[in-house]
Specification:
The complex is a heterodimer of chains A (about 500) and B (about 150). Helix content of chain A is about 75%, strand content about 0%. With about 500 residues, chain A is mainly alpha-helical. In chain A, helix 6 (about 110-140) runs parallel beside helix 10 (about 245-265), helix 14 crosses helix 20 (about 435-460) and helix 18 (about 390-410) packs across helix 19. Chain B has two domains: about 1-55; about 65-145, no CATH class. Helices cover about 75% and strands about 0% of the residues of chain B. Chain B has six helices and no strands. In chain B, helix 1 (about 1-20) packs antiparallel against helix 2 (about 35-55) and helix 4 packs antiparallel against helix 5 (about 110-130). The termini of chain B are far apart. The chains are: A mainly alpha (about 500), B mainly alpha (about 150). At the A-B interface, helix 8, helix 9, helix 18, helix 19 and helix 20 of A face helix 1, helix 2, helix 3, helix 4 and helix 5 of B. Chain A: InterPro entries: DUF112_TM. Chain A: It comes from Thauera aminoaromatica. Chain A: It holds the Pfam family TctA.
Chain lengths: ~500, ~150
């Protein structure tokens, strides 16, 4: 019952006219960013974070804005997937499989409205899941000491490193570069200057925003030039907009099942919306029996991935809020946002900052209702954004990105550093280095080092303290399994395929 | 091949980092682990990963064809120049100047580039600086005129 009253307090925070307005703007921007091919949730959150900071929004409003953008992106990705067969963000890849065929058959309206409802179902169920599970998890994690914390962060990094990318050394390299960059600046404990190369601007370390904009905005522009495709005309929406009763009945269990699995996949660190939507699509296809239309425009084929990717996007907020350990690139950027406001993420967040946590959760409920309302009747407005030409979009994104970096310190040094990091980021991305472990390493680096040093201070330098408690041993084992497990399984499958 | 070269560069970087990091000692220490241990640990692991990258048999990186690569390089230089001039020329002029060539790269005409550039420069300046209170540089030249 305590949870409910806290949630009500949250609604009081999220329901102030100013925060409602912010959530509405966030939902709108998020949907637009989501539907533009090339820009996804991580770019949207990365570009808006410095601007929210520069506008001096209070922390809860800034987080409400970022979460609304995040939620909106997951809705927006499906629009371009259905109308031009190009996913607007990575989570919408599976939606193209049945969404585009439906649109070609003249069923664009039902495909869009059903996927909006599926997105809503997924997000709503997952938000309820956050309310139910997050406080429990936070309470359990509060007993963690520095040694357990260190092991937990290693686990988070290995989950991401084990699951993404095609090669383990690449994922680990990305993560280690992030960790290394986090050590630049004055060491807080001893006052020693580390890797500042006598540059005044590096004394406080590399600003988080500079890294984020470089990696996710500047390098993205270069990739957009590389992957430039001739923009295809979006299919015009004709006929009915709303799905009918028969279609709803067909898809209702699909939506619920996918929302459920999506949430739990999202809670696991490392596995994000992309994996969730692919798994749920495959599962529904298998369960559909003989007379399914999957691949040729089955309504369940748009409902499953959309419910799953929205549920998992919200589910991935659980480890971020309760453990302070983000499980995906986007939530890593949000953790960075908290640290910009000098809020230490972690299990104590629920106790120390109830206004922020519960305000954010309540705003997720509100944002999803707004998104459903925005996405069904106003769908034609959003479709217009598909025709923004790249020659205007790209310079616009470049300008907004630099505005964000400039807003932090107002120095040319930061702008140039961000651009250079963007150039390196482009090279890394072309060579298939995953970028999410990079940003996660950078965000967690300082906390990891502090916890390691604290643990070793307590034990007076004995490394054994890291493996002393059952919890930390469990975390280490899990980390090793996550890092090596997926690869061992793949190798075994390959061997089987060779011998067979 | 690209991965091997990158691995080699990375190995050199981590060795240089360890070389520099070796001297990171606190003059007075109250704790068993000083400022040196964590970066050195990370650099050591990074060096191992660099060696693994050089040995690994992975699929080759596919680079964009040379003409596209050249344009991507130019785009990078334009953004770099934009970053350099952002403060000096002021947001409006720097943005307008950046937009013209970038618009050309993405299939816009000269006219679209110029009109779009002026539109973005002026429009975004008013939107951010005036409406949202995010201070943007007006540039040295304007400060001179306004005194």
């Amino acid at each position: 019952m305590e949870t409910l009253s806290l949630l009500m307090d949250g609604f009081a925070v999220a329901g102030t006219p100013e925060n409602l307005m912010i959530a509405l703007i966030g939902c709108f921007i998020g949907t637009v960013v989501g539907l533009l091919p090339g820009l996804g949730p991580i770019n949207g959150v990365a570009i808006l974070l410095p601007i929210a900071f520069a506008m001096k929004l209070p922390p809860e409003s800034a987080l409400i804005l970022l979460c609304a953008v995040y939620a909106g992106c997951e809705y927006g990705g499906r629009i371009s997937a259905i109308l031009i067969n190009v996913p607007g963000d990575a989570g919408a890849v599976m939606t193209t499989l049945d969404g585009y065929p439906m649109a070609k058959k003249g069923l664009a309206g039902p495909a869009l409205s059903m996927s909006a409802l599926a997105s809503f179902t997924g997000a709503l169920l997952a938000t309820i899941g956050i309310v139910a599970f997050a406080p429990l998890l936070a309470e359990w994690a509060i007993a963690f000491g520095p040694a357990e914390y260190f092991a937990l962060m290693v686990l988070a990094l290995s989950c991401l490193g084990g699951l993404v990318g095609d090669s383990l050394p690449k994922a680990m390299t990305a993560c280690l570069i992030g960790l290394l960059l986090s050590t630049v600046g004055i060491d807080a404990n001893s006052g020693v200057y580390r890797y500042t190369f006598d540059m005044l601007h590096l004394q406080d370390g590399i600003p988080f925003i500079v890294i984020v904009i470089g990696l996710f905005a500047v390098s993205e522009l270069m990739l957009m030039l590389q992957n430039e495709h001739t923009a295809s005309e979006p299919i015009t929406i004709t006929g009915r907009i709303l799905f009918n009763m028969k279609e709803l009945m067909l898809a209702k269990w699909t939506m619920l099942r996918s929302a459920f699995s999506g949430f739990f996949i999202g809670v696991l660190p490392g596995a994000g919306a992309t994996i969730a939507s692919a798994m749920c699509y495959a599962m529904e296809r298998r369960m559909a029996g003989k007379d399914h239309q999957f691949g040729n425009g089955d309504i369940r084929g748009v409902a499953a991935p959309e419910a799953a990717n929205n549920a998992s996007a919200n589910g991935s907020l659980v480890p971020m809020l309760t453990l302070g350990v983000p499980g995906s690139g986007t939530t890593a950027v949000m953790i960075g946002a908290l640290t910009l406001y000098n809020i230490t993420p972690g299990p104590t967040l629920f106790q120390d900052q109830p206004v922020i946590v519960w305000g954010l959760i309540a705003s997720l409920f509100i944002a999803n209702v707004m998104l459903l309302v925005l996405n069904i009747p106003l769908i034609r407005v959003f479709v217009k954004f598909l025709s923004i030409p790249n020659w205007l979009l790209v310079p616009g994104v470049a300008a907004i990105s630099l505005v964000g970096v400039y807003a932090v310190h107002g120095t040319t040094f930061d702008l140039i550093l961000g651009t250079l990091i963007g150039g390196v980021g482009y090279l890394l991305r072309v060579m298939n280095f995953p970028i999410a472990p990079f940003i996660l390493g950078f965000v967690l680096g300082d906390m990891m080092e502090q916890n390691l040093r604290r643990a070793l201070s307590i034990s007076d330098g004995d490394v054994g303290v890291l493996f002393a408690s059952p919890i930390s041993i469990g975390l280490w084992v899990a980390a090793a399994a996550m890092l090596l497990g997926p690869r061992l399984m793949r190798m075994m499958e390959q061997r089987k395929a060779v011998t067979a | 091949m690209s991965e091997r070269i990158f691995g080699g560069v990375l190995l050199l970087v981590s060795l240089a980092g360890i070389w520099i990091g070796w001297d990171l000692q606190a003059p007075m220490s109250y704790e068993p682990v000083g400022p040196r241990a964590f970066p050195l640990l990370v650099l050591f692991l990074l060096g191992l990963c660099a060696i693994a990258l050089m040995l690994e048999k992975t699929s080759e990186t596919v680079w964009a064809p040379p003409p596209v690569l050249k344009r991507i390089g130019l785009l990078f230089l334009i953004v770099l120049a934009y970053a350099l001039l952002f403060d000096k020329l002021g947001f409006t002029i720097a943005t307008a100047l950046m937009t013209v060539p970038v618009a050309r790269f993405f299939g816009g005409s000269w006219k679209q580039g110029v009109v779009g550039g002026i539109g973005l420069g002026v429009g975004m300046f008013f939107f951010f600086d005036r409406l949202l209170d995010v201070a943007l540089p007006t540039g040295l030249w304007l400060n001179g005129i306004l005194g």
